[in-house]
Amino acid sequence: MNYLQYTFKTASENVDLLIAFLSDSPFDTFEETEEGFLAFAPASAAEADIEAHLAELQEQFPFSWQKSLIEGQNWNELWESNFQPVIVDDYCAVRADFHEPIPGKKWELVINPKMAFGTGHHETTWQCIAAIEHLPMKGAHILDYGCGTGILAILAAKEGAAVVEAVDIEEQSYLNTVENSAANGVPHVIARLGTIEAVQGRNFDGILANINRHVILESLPRLAELIKPGGWLLISGILLTDEDIVTEAANQAGFEKKEMKNRGNWLCGVFHMRA
What's the domain count of the chain? Predict the structure, then answer.
């Protein structure tokens, strides 16, 4: 698949806000740079719509951008040169198969993204991994909603979850989750392609949702139907400024906030479904 690469130049304090606004558009992958960040969208995306949205954002934030086409055969070279391992304390290391092993961690996951930078925003991924260490996984039935590379689903399975269902709307993410699950020896991760309606399980003990504010807010009522009373919901991909609106929407859907942490400008929260 060919991709459009948009190179953004902006002040560091604008990067997280711009990425958050662009996460609701055809852009599906981001990587920060010294001068701003890169954003990638499928070449089939409507460029006119993207650029109209950028013009609107330029009325709110000072930034410049340039566009280029990245052909599919160049993706491996791109992400190999940019993808760095993710290390979460002594708990977990995430690397690609071309990296050297990382000793001294409870878990080491080998994740090979189908797209450049396929592990997503490092602050949100890091926080979700750190949170999983303290969530009840043994024997649990888990849903990874918006699974991406499958990284969180795989870690949940490693921690002893009995069944892990992972769903993503992007075909590349679905295929990548299948491959990465097999490579990490967790065949009981069941990947599905589609929206939340593709989920076949019910009464989940826990749900992982590392997506973005728009999708989370839209999906909370349905997630509440899929989780059992007393079950937990892990949410990330939301900014510090989103905490009140997400907490209120979660409360209306039947969830109570138990914990909220941040790393940089990004939040990660644990909610419990009221019994």
Answer: 2
Whole-model pTM: value is 0.82
Strand 36-42 versus strand 3-10 pairing type: antiparallel
**Distance between CA atoms of 188 and 153, rounded to whole angstroms?**
10
State which residues form the domain around 205: 120-273
Buried b (16+ CB within 10 A) or exposed e, 103-125: eebebbbbbbbbbbbbbbbbbbb
Helix, strand or coil for residue 241? helix
- Type of residue found at 20: A
Q: Is residue 112 part of a domain?
A: no
The pLDDT tens digits for 22-80 are: 876 788 777 778 899 988 888 888 899 999 999 999 999 899 999 998 876 555 666 66
State the CATH number of the domain containing residue 261.
3.40.50.150
- Which helix (H) or strand (E) segment is 58 a member of? helix 47-58
Residue with tokens 């989370």: 216
The CATH number for 8's domain is 3.30.70
